[in-house]
Amino acid sequence: MLEITNLVKRYGQNEPVLKGLNLKVEGSSVVSIVGASGAGKSTLLRCINRLVEPTSGSIKLNGHELVNLRGSDLRHSRRRIGMVFQGFNLIDRLTVMENVLSGRLGYVSFFQALTRRFPQSDIDRAFSLMERVGIAHYADKRADQLSGGERQRVAVVRALMQEPEILLADEPTASLDPKTSQQIMSLLQSLASEMSLPVLINIHNVTQARMYTDRIVGMRHGQMIFDGEPKDFNQDALDAIYGGIESPEEDAGEPASPTEEASA
Amino acid sequence: MVDHAAKLTDRVWSRYDRKEQLTRYAVYLATLIAVVWAVRDIDIFWPWVWDAPNQIQSLGARMWPPEFSKWSAIFSAMLETVHIATLSTMLTIFIALPVSYIAAQNTTPNKITLWIGRFILVSSRSVNTIIWALLFVAIFGPGVLAGILAVMFRSVGFIGKLMGEAIEEIDRRPVEAMEATGASKMKVVLYAIVPQVMPAFFAIIILRWDINIRESTVLGLVGAGGIGVLLQGSIDMFAWQTVATILLAIVVLVILGEALTSVLRKKVI
Amino acid sequence: MTSGNTASGAQPGRVWKKPPFIANPWIRYGLVAITLAYLYWAFSTLPFDWQRIAEGLPRAGKIFGGAFPPSFERGGLLWTGFKESFQIAFLATMLGVLLSVPIAVMAARNVAPLPVYILGRTLIIVSRSFHPVIVAILFVAAVGFGPMAGILTLTLYSIGFVAKLLAEEIEEIDWGQVEAMRSVGAGYMKILVYGVFPQIMPRQIGLSMYQLDSNLRASAVVGIVGAGGIGGTLMNAFGRYDYDFAFAILLMIIAIILVSEGLSGWVRKKVW
């Protein structure tokens, strides 16, 4: 269970990006976070695994406080949190298998990491996960030779290699074409139920959020303004989240496309 | 394309406004004054200058034809030159990599190490190989060790600086991903940074080896081993025809080195 | 990559090994063996004078002990040395840059006929093939000790670098401007002045600044073999075991190089 209370993040002396956010994710539900760019979605996810330092508040994963962890405690917590990125963030010059095994870096010793001598159990797990998402035949291919959808699958497997207790996905489909992004979304959905893993997905595409997730959280200006099931996510909610974007730094074009798709 | 060119021309034209024009004349004037000052002030005996073409010609005549009787000594001195360049390049790697690690802004542990790293790079780079050689000959006596150390001390700055820049230019995103898996700092370096800088590393090492071959040919002039010792000896004995052979050998070596490096570069990248 | 790896991946045995950096095992182990053999050969044939080297550490202590604190007492000598170095570098840059323009035109395939092109390229290759210090000794032998040899050396050095890059720049110019000049009936020289030079001008200024910087560095070095400037002063200081003075010269060289590097970088940024 992930429990976020009163989370605040402020960069320097600017207006806070997150203004006292509260969120609870229980069981193995797939939660999508929607909102215009700049609403604080990405910062929220990065606060959870502390790639971004929260200014104040509390984040508890299965009763374990994550804020204020340091050094090896932080690393031990991070390995229980898997993360999938918008740009895949693979290591291009390494093979798919090495990328996948890098998900175990929090567990193996430096010497094992250096010589690539991972425990047999890790290798078995890697193969079975890669077979599950259909990339096992690429094991010894270099990561930069794969297509976008395949690369994101590698990234998903890498995150799952951590044996995570929660999976974070930061715009996992934003760099993919529509068909591939649907495949990735349904993959995340089915993996979540197979592994009874809670999944938090930042997403622009409201249609996909409705179709593939159990719960939608709407954010605007660092605050949560909607929390409910997809069926309750109506035009009013959509307008509240995206409508009349007045913040000058945002390009108004971006939120327009999900609005259109949603109303279509 | 045409539009672009037209724009460029516009931009050029806008440079020639009044203020710019004055600045240009000021620069011209300053350059002229500097030239006049330098020419008048410099310690040159002008009759020699007018005689220089003759002197150069007569030196050339004395060198012709090259004389090959010393070829075996030249050959082994050449080998020594190559050894100095190769060994020093290899050894430099072990020093330059840690230095580049602490001299790159995104990997250095803290501000102090950053400045230490930069200090090492700057001091290594601003002292020329041959001046390093002068110092090491004074310390360790004439010989190849002084040469190897001199080339190493100069190469650390070169390789370290370029590697540091390569580290600073990496894609941040894999680093973020590795941090998110809970990997320690060293493992992040190993998986997210090392693979990214590998091609740059090989390119830089090959480039520096090529430069070091050239540098090693002159080390002997201050007594630090290699073909330069023989060259200096032949000049001192006015054996100009042997000098010509040595010069030819150096050209051959440099060309071979360049050919080898271009082959290696293609292989590696 | 190798067939062995693909097979193991497909089998249920599930072995995985990192594909080796070099796929062919013969080449892989061969390279290791060659490297080891080379190292052995190099170290065993190089004439190390271990006895003399063993004296090195106490000597280093003596030298650095003598070098601290660096002595700036002979300021006059320091000043004339650096002044001469600067004059050598400056005059050589001016000469080199001026000469490199015609040579670059000769060595650019798109504006020079083939025989001229070959001549231009040869000039560039000849001036590039020797380390400036070697060129300096030859000039010292030919025209005697002093700044004259230094200027000649660095002029040649500048031509090798500036003319080469400039020729490459000319080969990449926008040909449309040349055709435009041709179409208004301009002759060869006029085409060069109106159609070619404006395009390479910013690059040429940048290169000149860069070359002034590297000539300043090199001028400290060519002096070591007698071609004038601070290098000679440094060599003398070392020869007379005046380590405190030598160290002062070294510090000055470093300082001046840093300043000149910063300055030339600043000017190049302004021009580009």
Automatic annotation (TrEMBL), chain C:
Tree of life domain: Bacteria
Domain ABC transmembrane type-1 span(s) in chain numbering: 82-264
Keyword RNA-binding attached: no
Compartments it resides in: Cell membrane
PROSITE patterns reported in the protein's UniProt record: ABC_TM1
Membrane disposition: Multi-pass membrane protein
Transmembrane segments: 26-43, 88-112, 133-160, 218-239, 245-267
Keywords attached to this entry: Cell membrane, Membrane, Transmembrane, Transmembrane helix, Transport
Family of this protein: Belongs to the binding-protein-dependent transport system permease family.
Entry-linked NCBIfam families: PhnE (TIGR01097)
PANTHER family in the record: ABC TRANSPORT SYSTEM PERMEASE PROTEIN P69, PHOSPHONATES TRANSPORT SYSTEM PERMEASE PROTEIN
Annotated protein name in UniProt: Phosphonate ABC transporter, permease protein PhnE
Gene source species: Marinobacter xiaoshiensis
